[in-house]
Amino acid sequence: MDARLLADQIPSLRRYARALTGNAWAADDLVQDTLERACSKWRLWVVGSDLRAWLFTVMHNIFASQLRRTPPPHSVVPLEDAAQELHGGSDPGRDPGMGLDLQRCLMQLPEEQRAVLLLVTLEDLSYAEVARVLGIPAGTVMSRLSRARVRLHELMDGASAPHRTGLRRLK
Amino acid sequence: MNRPAPPPTDDELHALVDGQLAPERRAEVEGAVARDPALAARVAAWRTQRDALRRLHGELLDEPVPASLMNALGRSQTRRARQGHWMRWGGVAAGVLIAFAAGWLGNAQWSMQRAASAQLARAPAMREFVHDASIAHAVYAPEKRHPVEVAASEQQHLVQWLSKRLDRPLKVPDLTAMGYALVGGRLLPGESGARAQFMFEDGAGERITLYIGTLDSQAAAGTAASRETAFRFASEGPVPSFYWVDQGFGYAVAGKLPREVLLKLATLAYRDLS
Predict the structure, then answer these.
(1) CATH number of the domain enclosing A56
(2) Mutation for A interface: B12, B16, B48, B59, most A CBs within 10 A
(3) Which parts of the chain span the membrane according to its record (chain B) (predicted)?
C-alpha cells in the first residue's frame, strides 16, 4: 500500500466530513477513523478501482455506525466554529455568512439526504457511484437528491428572506 | 426544433444540473427548460445551490493537513517505513511528517543530512535545530485558523506555560519597533526536549517566528567552547533564518524575508532578550 495515495485524499475527505458533520472536531475524528480503517482494510480495496469512492464507502460505514451508537446532537453550528468561520475567510470571494447559513441549513436535512447531496455536488460522484458508496438502490439516490435539493432551497430561502415565497415546485 | 421534445423528468433535470445527463438527451432537455420559465427557474436555483455547496469549506483543501491525521496514516505504516520512503512526500506534508514523525522513524535520515551539511554548521545539532525551526515556520505560519496554540491575548499564560515546559524562564521579545506584534505561541517536540515557537505578524500579515529550545549538551559544549553567540544565517530550509546560541539555548528567527530585514529582526529580538 502506498500511503501517499491516501495522503493525497485527506484534504477532500476533510472537506466532505466537515460538510457532513457540520463540526470541525467531529469531522477530523471521522477522517482519522476512516484513515485508520482504510489502512487496516487495505486489502479490501480493489486495485485500480476508484480510491476516493472506496474511502467514502469506508467513511460512511463508520459514520453510520457512529450515528447508530450516538444519535447526532441537534443541528447546531458550535459558537467556536462560527467565530472561526467569520474570522477565517480572508478570501474576498467567499462570504462567510453565506457559508454558515448553508452549513446550518444542511444540518437540518436528514443525514441520508445530506450525504447524497454532498457526494453528488461537492465530490462530483456519479449517481451510480453514490448508490455503491451508500449501499442503496439508484432510485433511492435520485429521490433523496430531489428531496434534499427542494428542502435545502426552502431552508436557505427562509434563512435569507423569511417572508419571500420560495420557488414553487412544478405541478 | 420541429417536434416537441418529451418533457424532462425530475431525474433528468437533476442530471442536467450535475452534468450527468446522457449527451443525446441533453439538447432536448435544455430546450424544454429554456421554453418553460418555471423549469428554468428551478434549474437555475439548483445550479446556484450546487455552486454554493461546492464553495463550502473550500479552505480545507488548501490548509496543511493536521499532524494527527498524518500520524493516523503513519501508525499503520510503521512496519513498512523504509529509509527515504517518507522523504518523497512533497512540501508541507514532508514538513509535518518530519516535525512529528521523525522521532519514531529513527535516525538514519537525520544522520545522512547531518553528514551532508556538516561543513555548513559547526555543531550538527545546531544545524538540525535551525532546520527544525525552518520547518516549524513553514508548517504553522500559513495556518489561518490555528496558527498558535495560545494567543497573544493570553500572553502571561503563554509565557508561564512555555517557560515551565522548557524549564527556563522565557521572555517574548518586543518587535513592535519593526511593526511586528505577537500572534501567540506553541509547544513543539525537538530532538533534545521541548521547543517553543512564538509567532509575530506585521500589518500586512507577514509572519515571522522565533524558535527556542535547549540544544543537546554536545552542541551547547561546542558553542560554549568557541564562545560563539554571533548570528549565523541559514538558507537551506523552507524559509531562511538567523540563529544564535546563548547559554546552551538556541534561538532562530525565521521568515520569508530578505536577509537584511531578517537580520534586523533577529538583532532586535536578541537585544530585547538579553
Answers:
(1) 1.20.140.160
(2) B59
(3) 86-105
Bridge partners of B195, per DSSP, are B188, B213
Q: Can you state the percent helix, strand and coil of chain B, rounding each to 5?
A: 55, 15, 30
B75 inside domain: no
Q: What is the CATH number of the domain that holds B179?
A: 3.30.200.100
Residue A167: inside a domain, yes or no?
no
pLDDT in tens, A135-152: 999 999 999 999 999 999
Total number of domains in chain B: 2
Q: Would A142 be classed as within a structural domain?
A: yes
Is residue B96 situated within a structural domain?
no
Residue B205, phi-psi category: left (phi > 0), alpha (psi -120 to 50), beta (remainder)? left
Q: Which residues of B touch A6 (CB under 8 A)?
A: 73
Residue among B257, B224, B266, B226 at smallest CA distance from B239:
B257
Model confidence, pTM = 0.51
Q: Is residue B84 part of a domain?
A: no
* Amino acid at the residue A85: E
pLDDT at B215: 78
> What residues make up the domain containing B210?
107-273
The answer to whether A18 contacts B73, with C-beta atoms less than 8 Å apart, is no
Indicate whether B101 pLDDT > 50.
no
| Subunit contact A167:B73, Cβ cutoff 8 A | no
pLDDT tens for residues B188-218? 888 778 899 999 999 888 999 999 998 765 5
Q: Do B38 and A170 touch (CB under 8 A)?
A: yes
All cell numbers assigned to B240: 531562511
Q: Is A159 on the interface with B (CB under 8 A)?
A: no
